[in-house]
Amino acid sequence: MNIFRLAGDMTHLISVLVLLLKIYATKSCSGISLKTQELYAIVFVTRYLDLFTDFISLYNTVMKLVFIGSSLAIVWCMRYHRVVRRSYDRELDTFRYWILLGVSFILALVLHEKFTLQEVFWAFSIYLEAVAILPQLVLLQRSGNVDNLAGQYVFFLGAYRAFYILNWIYRYLTEQRFTRWISCVSGLVQTALYADFFYYYFISWKNNAKLQLPA
Amino acid sequence: TQTDSVKDEL
User: Fold this and answer.
1) What domain count does chain A have?
2) Which of A28, A55, A145, A176 could pair with A87 in a Cys bridge, judged by C-beta atoms 3.0 to 4.6 Å apart?
3) Containing domain of residue A83, as a range?
4) Does a structural domain hold residue A125?
5) In which compartments does the protein localize (chain A) (predicted)?
């Protein structure tokens, strides 16, 4: 464990907490894409298949349970909670995410570390996470005004993978046999997808204005 | 030897 990875995990945890806060405090999920939340639930379930077989550390196990539990809870809330579900922007959240699922799965069948069920699903979860934010970014552009908590959620979600890139650089420099090309390349693509969001987020922060994404 | 494919990252 290094400071970059810890910072990344904490930032990721903050993004989940911000989203839970928004949903429970405002009883609203306006501006949040259910499709992105469902993709993230799939990412965590397919990535943590080793949850009960490989014990890395208490921290690792607890964080996996938190991410799986929170992502499923958010999907449940947005689909079935009688108050929250009314504020879901159903007509704006129309990204055809089957394409993302299909492409990621095909890519995982071709590019993986070992051709085992666990490794193929792990690679699938890495590729899927890289593009899982797309429905959310499209929804933010369509809904125009971005409420603070939704904006902060996306900001922290993007920042966490940037910390992980620093972590991979650090591990590559300090550990001889460390190579995680699948994670690194996907992580770079994932962070790049946030680039324009970060730019407009910074501008809105500098001008102390509401976050406006160009349609 | 521990294979480096053990996923110790989240």
Assistant:
1) 1
2) A28
3) 3-205
4) yes
5) Endoplasmic reticulum membrane
Cβ-Cβ pairs closer than 8 A, A with B, add up to 26
Which of A43, A39, A33 is closest to A64 using CA atoms?
A43
Contact of A2 with B6, CB cutoff 8 Å: no
In percent, the amount of chain A with pLDDT more than 70 equals: 100
Q: Is the pLDDT of residue A26 over 80?
A: yes
B3 pLDDT tier (thresholds 50, 70, 90): very low
**pLDDT above 80: residue B4:** no
Question: Directed axis angle between helix A134-143 and helix A148-174, to 10°?
Answer: 150
Q: With an 8 Å Cβ cutoff, is A56 touching chain B?
A: yes
Chain B nearest-CA distance from A47, in A, is 8
The answer as to whether A198 is a domain residue is: yes
A145 Cβ neighbours under 8 A, 6+ residues apart: A210, A211, A212
- The more confidently predicted of residues A158 and B2 is A158
CA-to-CA separations, A189 to A74, A122, A193, A201, A205, in angstroms, rounded: 25, 17, 6, 19, 24
Domain assignment of residue A102, yes or no: yes
**What chain A residue is nearest to B2 in terms of C-alpha separation?**
A177
ipTM metric: 0.87
